Amino acid sequence: MKGLIALPERCTGCQRCVLACSYVHAQSFSPSKSRIWVMRAKRKIDFPVFCNQCGLCINACPTGALYRDAKTRAVIIDENRCIGCGFCVGACPWGLIILDPGIKKAIKCDLCGGNPACVKECPEKALLFVDLNEAAFAKRSLFIRLMGE
Amino acid sequence: MEWYGYAGKILRVNLTQEKISSELLDRKLVREYLGGTGYAAKLMWDELKPGIDPLSPDNLLIFATGPVTGTLFPVSGSHDIVFKSPLTGIWGESRCGGFFGPRLKFAGYDFIVISGKAKKPVYLWICDGEAELRDASHLWGKGTHETARILLEELGLRDVSVNCIGPAGERLVRFAAILDENDRAAGRCGGGAVMGSKNLKAVAVSGSGEIKVARPREFEEALSKVNEAAYKFKKATVFAEYGTPGIVEPLNEAGAFPTMNFQTCYFENAHEIGGEALVKKYLIKRRSCFACLIGCGRHTEVKSGTYQTPAHEGPEYETINMFGGQLLIDNLAAIIKANYLCNDYGLDTISTGNCIAFAIEAYEKGLISEELVGGLILEWGNPTTLLELIEAIAFKRSGLGELLAEGVWRASKKLGDGAEAIAVHVKGLEAPAHDPRGTSRSFAIQYAIGNRGGCHTHPNWTGLWDFGKFDPGLRSFDLPWPPIDRFDEENVEKRAKAVKLFALHGLCAEILGFCRFFVENNEGACASPKILAEFISALLGFDINEYELMRISERVFNLQRCFNIREGIGRKDDALPKRFFEPIKSGPTKGQYVKNFERLLEAFYREAGWDAATGIPTKSKLLELGLDYVINQIPAP
Predict the structure, then answer these.
(1) Which of A13, A43, A123 sits opposite B284 (nearest CB)?
(2) Which chain B residues are Cβ-neighbours of A20 within 8 angstroms?
(3) Is the pLDDT of residue A83 over 80?
């Protein structure tokens, strides 16, 4: 199994991950249809952020539209069951699920079924899809690095 | 009917009447002019009354994106701002990178056409199709950094881009720039003064719309081709590693680094102010414009000392030359500070540096009185001169500041007594950091015929052919190959042909809405006409081949020319400053000067289909390009 991680030090803030994400999911270019965002903090940080698949949203859903994929362990939204109530959006502590303003349904990172488009499109290798333990290491060290900023 | 590539709409804002409306793009015009400065040229031709004062409410200010802007096209974070230039009185256009262009399209508009003048300072807020004018009295007087910061804060929790002016634009400095929220500038031609004259402090955009693709499968194939070319471009050039400052030293070594107000083309201390020095001492990180996989932006800071700056997007090659070599300043921290101040006040760094170099030389030659100087220090190599004059120009603070704020053309005319002979501009636009003598004779043609005046980048950096030895896929258009020597003035036909082809290729970037750097390499490592045509055909859903694309480019180029002709421009104005006929004083290109300018120009006229005596496009050329509607509105050749 693999995990998606970001190395913000490498990110130049180009947003190609955002465009790739919206294109594979909606066949159009629109940051509001992307499930990944690049947050810019003034001095130094460009930080790609996306769902870490914790699953807090699953229980918030009144229609049972959210479930965990057995293969990728990504939390997936069943579009047919989603009623766009936004409970999952409210439940996510990190702001990593949103309502698509066009289709008025919740959208979030689904790891592209195990082959994330954002990783392929990143010109700086700031996004990596790596072995779970490596991903865990990257997350631990990221926390420490950001504390030092 | 769906729009592909385009948002499909024009936003119209009349500031006098406080009226805002929108209209659909014209599909026929899209086929004939595509977008960006192409479609905008048609709007300017149809709607701008000839002869108007550029600083009057009659001027138009058009924010223009192209069909590829905001897509995954590798360098699509781009927009152009078009107006009649208060600096030159002719076609004014200025390109800006960043995020504004894409966000304008996500907000639902390809173009904003602004007319009239607001009663009091306002800003325009565009969000998801809605637009409104808001009071900007709290922003008036503030620098661009503070203006953008306040706007991002007050416009809420969303991604917003801003284009705004600083004190220089408010005070109508004729070369005032328009800046975005990340120090990206639409620098040239004085768009900032046009905004100032309209009491328009800023335009802010945000949107959640989408750009659709007409033929997805074909599009994905075309995209992977342009991506591959962009990665090759990135590898082949210095831009990712050193940004545009990476060309400081190579150009200097080639004797192509204009120095001391173009008296020479070699600066001994160039290594102190080059890309490597910048990266080693002051770079925080690289930053990209929207969708750019190259990432030439230098996020920079001077941490301490006299020239301390906050973190910001640092100086480009042009700025380093104009503040460095041209003024003999080898203190990179001072140049970074000067760049930061110009961005904050909203000044074009090229025109600013050129004006200051002119002032120092004029003072040295006794053409400026002590009274006019008013206690300012005017010396080569002195950072204080640079920083003091930036303040003086931006705030029109002293006699000299007020004079230089008019641009080098007007300033030299006012001074008289030989000052005009050392003013380096074409049609009023201050010449940038490239020299027809030291770089390539192609610039003798390019500077003379450029639609916005003496410019290195519009319509293209035409030295790519002989200086760079690049063929960006133009040989199927009969690009002469191999290129001639860069100083050759005998094979004028070959040079004229090359300049024209490169010009038309470069113009594609402004028409389609992407960063022009990406046309600057060999086929396979750049946006050749062929892969551009494939990409836009798949994106837009109608077939355009490379020949039709270049033809559209030629149509636009000639329409912009006719816009200038209608304003009174002709062969007499297609002239070079006197300096380019004087030998370079030192360095590897010592002794070089332009010898056969008239022959070069006439060869270009022939190649372009322009009348030799008047410089006006011939009737048959205009008919061939489908520009029959302009014929009755310009003098016959």
Answers:
(1) A43
(2) 72
(3) yes
pLDDT score recorded for residue A144: 83
pLDDT of residue A147 exceeding 80: no
Terminal C-alpha separation, chain A: 31
Pick among A11, A12, A118 to test the B interface (most B CBs inside 10 A):
A12
In this complex, which of B210, B290, B297 lies closest to A28 when CB atoms are compared?
Answer: B210
Answer yes or no: do A15 and B211 touch at CB < 8 A.
no
Q: Which CATH number goes with the domain that contains B540? A: 1.10.599.10
| Same-domain check for residues B114 and B177 | yes
With contacts defined as CB-CB under 8 Å, which chain A residues touch B292?
12, 14
Query: B313 near B181, Cβ under 8 Å?
Result: no
pLDDT of residue B540: 98
The reply to whether B555 falls in a domain is yes
In this structure, the answer to whether residues B136 and B29 fall within a common structural domain is yes
Half-sphere exposure (CA, 13 Å, Cβ side) for B299? 20
Return mean pLDDT, chain B: 97
CB within 8 Å: A12 and B70: no
Instruction: Report yes or no: A126 at the B interface, CB cutoff 8 Å.
Output: no
Residue B284 belongs to a domain with what CATH number? 1.10.569.10
* CA distance, residue A36 to nearest chain B CA (Å): 14
Per-residue three-class SS string for A44-99? CCEEEEECCCCCHHHHHCCCCCEEECCCCCCEEECCCCCCCCCHHHHHCCCCCCEE
Range of the domain at A121: 2-147
Give the total number of structural domains in chain B: 3
Q: Which residues of chain B have pLDDT under 70?
A: none
Residue A21: give its domain's CATH number: 3.30.70.20
Position B171 scores a pLDDT of: 98
Question: Is B241 in contact with B286 (CB distance < 8 Å)?
Answer: no
Chain B nearest CA to A29, separation (Å): 5
B293·A16 Cβ contact <8 A: yes
Interface contact flag, A31 B213, Cβ < 8 Å: no
Tell me which residue range forms the domain holding B52: 9-206
Instruction: Answer yes or no: do B298 and B404 share one domain.
Output: yes
Cα B142 from chain centre: 24
What's the pLDDT tens digit per position in A100-137? 999 999 999 999 999 999 999 999 999 999 999 999 99
Q: Do B159 and A14 touch (CB under 8 A)?
A: no
Give residue A15's pLDDT: 97
* pTM for the structure as a whole: 0.98
